[in-house]
Amino acid sequence: MLLGLALTACAAQPRAAAAPSASEPVTIAAVPPVFQYLYGSGEAVALDRQAYNSLVDAVRRRLAGERADPGAQRTSAVLAPTATIDQPLTLPCGDKPRAVVFDVDETLLLNLGYEYDEATHQGRPYDETRWTRWEQTGVDMVAAVPGALWAVDELRRLGVVVVFNSNRSAANAAFTEAALDHAGLGPAKHGDTLWLKGDLGSGSGKDSRRQAIAERYCVVAMGGDQLGDFSDLFTGLPQERRAKAEAPAIWGMWGRFWFVLPNPVYGSGLKGSADEVFPADKRWSDPGGKQ
Amino acid sequence: MLLGLALTACAAQPRAAAAPSASEPVTIAAVPPVFQYLYGSGEAVALDRQAYNSLVDAVRRRLAGERADPGAQRTSAVLAPTATIDQPLTLPCGDKPRAVVFDVDETLLLNLGYEYDEATHQGRPYDETRWTRWEQTGVDMVAAVPGALWAVDELRRLGVVVVFNSNRSAANAAFTEAALDHAGLGPAKHGDTLWLKGDLGSGSGKDSRRQAIAERYCVVAMGGDQLGDFSDLFTGLPQERRAKAEAPAIWGMWGRFWFVLPNPVYGSGLKGSADEVFPADKRWSDPGGKQ
């Protein structure tokens, strides 16, 4: 709907533009719209709850179907190493224990403390050493994403193993285990139910960890806030990534095997010039505006 | 995941801060992150497809359940006039024809032309007369939200009536009917399947129109990008709206009867100072940063 159009990102820019230098906090009014939306809106809560309700309902139906027809072949939500966007083959499940694989940051955990520091120091470039300090000292300044606690508890009650696949650093595994415990999402055990950047010599790509998890478990669903939380195939320029996400053999996965949480604050989706973001044939010029 | 943290809203602010005066386009690099996310990210496509897959799957199950047990009492996804957040009573359905009620803008339609003009004129305040010009002259510069065409076609194939409840102006009804037709989402007929701001003397609140629709139809699901697309009860400050969206009697509606599309670009969710957005006990200060 259009109520509140006055509060657009555009309208917010001049306030952001008024932000002072990185070392001093900006005025409270200047909190950027991406933070207002993800951490301050009921709409984001609704998207979060929708994702977790849909995920748990889908797993319940899957388990009921397996009980009703034990002989049927079941496939994993993890793509096979040979999968492509046009032929996204999934791995067979066999009798492996059932699991759901979740990303952590802005999927299960809201990094409220870190993003408050970011929101009050606008214009400051990303600093990997700052994020490392956050992993080590922010353990008690996170909160569970709305619906995440309920979903994780319900899945475990159903006998499904909850596995975490995060790009937090393997070197900080103990802190991430503690952060998940603090938020009530634990237990997470590094090397068993917690997989991190650096494990198996991995970089930010998560496929190698997904394959290792799929060797132990039948992954019935995955949850994440970035396309890379589901497959490393979602590469390319903005419109290429969009085309891949709704490719004929891919789009049916969303809300059925793959469950997405909203995150406009950071990540692979925040790329592109106006020419890359807006189609060439959809560029209106206000006939009543200054030419 | 954390890959791409460098591309945060914060990192984008200095570019926005460099935006020139409202009358001249900004540099292409300055497209704000909310536009990159909604119109340029594969993550938004995945959220859209997830919402529409979940909605259609839920309606299919609902209709199958009704066929299997025709006698059972069915309730509407529309709340009763006496409903509260604690007691969200829904209307009985009886034998009325089944319908799904959708918001239009950033739910079924992406206003690409209008938002391109906004993105290239940052700092310009919202102008209602500009939006009116957009409703009248932007009919061919919209596109269907990913998944919307499939969902609308599938619902109609299932015998479900598609009803539109938008805050576009009743005075521009013919233009909005044309925009929906252009995007392939029609037919929409004002006063029958298209309800607009001004109908029934309504303002931006949609409850009066929802009640009128529910008198004719059994509404099995609703779709929207704003909490007001589901009920006018979601009022208040940011954290109040969040609490209402996940109230004990409300949160089970998301992804089951109420389906949310992402929209960080405009709307009721883009409010709040840092103090209103971030909890007081979740404010980290980088121990390695300037004090």
* Largest sheet data of chain A: 5 strands, parallel
The number of strands of chain A is: 9
Largest interface: A-B, 128 and 128 residues
Amino- and carboxy-terminal Cα gap of chain A: 29 Å
Our estimate of the beta-strand percent of chain A is: 5-15%
**If you compute it from the alpha carbons, what radius of gyration of chain A comes out, rounded to the nearest whole angstrom?**
20 Å
Strand order of the largest sheet of chain A: 7-6-3-8-9
Helix and strand succession of chain A?
HHHEEEEHHEHEHEHEHEH
Oligomer designation: homodimer
Mean pLDDT of chain A: 90
Question: How many separate helices of chain A?
Answer: 10
Protein architecture, described:
The structure is a homodimer of 291-residue chains. Chain A is of the alpha/beta class. Helix content of chain A is 36%, strand content 14%. The first copy, chain A, has ten helices and nine strands. In chain A, the strands form three sheets. In chain A, strands 7-6-3-8-9 form a five-stranded parallel beta sheet, with helices on both faces. In chain A, strands 1-2 form a two-stranded antiparallel sheet. In chain A, strand 8 (218-224), helix 9 and strand 9 form a beta-alpha-beta unit. Chain A is globular. The two termini of chain A are 29 Å apart. Chains A and B meet through helix 1, helix 2, helix 3, helix 4 and helix 5 of A and helix 1, helix 2, helix 3, helix 4 and helix 5 of B.
